[in-house]
Amino acid sequence: MKIGKRITRSSAFIYTVRTLVALYIELVFWSARWRHEGFDTLRGFWAAKQPIIGVFWHGRMMMFPKFWRTKQKISMLISNHRDGELIANSIEWFGVGAIRGSAGRRKAGQSAVSLKGGAAALRTMLKILESGESVAITPDGPSGPRMRVSSGVVLLAKMSGVPILPGSWSCRRSRVFSSWDRFMLALPFSGGVFMVGEPVHVPPDADEDTMEAARRNVEDQLNKLTARADEMVGRTAIEPAPLPAQTPAG
Q1: Structural domain total, the chain
Q2: Residue 130 sits in which domain range?
């Protein structure tokens, strides 16, 4: 067991796996026909060299690097989960930086502006955005609930003044796993669609109600984009996890 752990944690093993993952993503992308919807919005940010906070569901993580077809820099928030190291190494193949941490999630009795994983990830993302570079977040990661936006991304938008831009994709030939996030593995020689929504701005003086409205806006857009993408390729839409039951007051 110790020998096996040493092998899987070795730099040679990680490099080999990340290379295979990256090459597979390249194969899927270049062997398929892809449609693009809403990309004028994204291209507008690129042309103006303005940063964004890109968001997409954890289950649609695979093709994210192929959204970012520009030399402008972007870094992705990757959880400290055990799979995070592989993901971080894989996206670096495509020139995407990695920030280790987790987006916050509101709990009972907790402020809506908390950020799980500590202030370090938040400070890092703020510095990146202030430098004019973009960041990307899976706001339902690293462990759900599926397709529900955590509050951390809204806090980041409020503090940075940078808009949140939702995106999603789907592929006709793909496998959807039974994991918590219903991870979609796209298959080669297929057809698919990339979709971009409308930017969500969070004012610097936003109160909790305003932030919650922004959070719901991002969540609704992401779910509509994902459902629309699935519909366009002839797939059954994946449903978000049920909302938690509300505890009656008193």
Answers
A1: 1
A2: 2-232
